[in-house]
Amino acid sequence: MSVLLLLACAGMIAGAFFLLRIAPLEFTDGLFGFLTRPNMSVRAEINEATQRKKAGFLRREIIEVQEILKLTGRGGRFSMICAASLLLFAVGASLAILLGNLFLIPVLAAGLMFLPFWAIRLTAIHYQKSVAAELETALSIITTSYLRNEDILTAVEESVQYLNPPVRNVFAGFLTQVKLIDPDVQTALQALKPKIQNEVFQEWTDAISACQYDRSLKTTLTPIVAKLSDMRIVNADLEYLVSEPRKEFIIMALLVVGNVPIMYFLNKGWYHTLMYTPVGQIILAVCTAAIFISAAWVIKLTKPIEYRR
Length: 309
Prior knowledge:
Helix 10 runs antiparallel to helix 11. About 80% of the residues lie in helices and about 0% in strands. Among the domains are: about 1-115, no CATH class; about 125-230. It is mainly alpha-helical.
């Protein structure tokens, strides 16, 4: 009966979209845009400016995913991420209804809804690591060339062929701006600075800008580049430290989830108590919530360390 009701509900929703001529992506954009809309009151603006009150958890997640997609050049996929999140929300609620566990409906729906956002954050972690590794190589090559000829334009021209995307595209754009648009190197360096969201790169750009007025400051470039090597070593140590706890979490989560079907074969009385009594359903909802909350913290703690000035 529950399956028929869910199918009927899905048909009604699809029919409403068809009759009203609303595209699913437009609906999700409007819904998530409403959820991320800031409070326009003066008190809310003051609290946000002074950081007295943080934005809601959902709004922070959505804004962070938007920023990640823009940085990685995938800003157009935000609508697809929102649609997948909304679909998983409906799938989670439907699974809980099919299981007959009302306590599990908000937990499973909310947990599955955040899966696309967590997946984007995981891809962002790998993207940041690859960019930091390529940036270390690029700045080292360009700095060595600059120390030799004391001309940043020549240094970038000599080094750009040895670089890989996306760092290569950034420095290629710098050469294009200086050669074809505006020969002012200082303006081009200021435009280069925000193209890579990395504190060491931005500090290196400021140092190169200062060297255009005082060549003796070029001795500060090598220690700045060395910070990238230090951060790589620190992140390697961090990855080694968190790898074992992460594996333990995955194993424990699989054991908790796997115990439910195993219990059916070992003791059907316990299985019936867990699945069909209010106390068992509450325990199952609490365990599921603990898994999702723990997963969110694991993703947050495995984020690579970045240098801050």
